[in-house]
C-alpha cells in the first residue's frame, strides 16, 4: 500500500462528556469563526477548528448556519 489514508476527528473534549455531540459541533463551529475574525481569512491557524466542526457536524447544519451568518440571523455568539 503506497498511499495510506489517515482518518482523524476532533479530539475528546471534557466539556462534552456525553455521546450527544450536538453542543460540541456547535461550539467548534463558533470557535472556528471567532478565530477567523481575530486572525483573518488568510491565517492557517484556524484550520484545526474547521477540521473539527466538519468532522462533527452534519453538512446540512453547516449549510444552514453559513446561510444564517450571511443573513445576519445566526443564533450563536460570533
From TrEMBL:
Domain of life of the source: Eukaryota
Protein name according to UniProt: Uncharacterized protein
Source organism per UniProt: Manihot esculenta (Cassava)
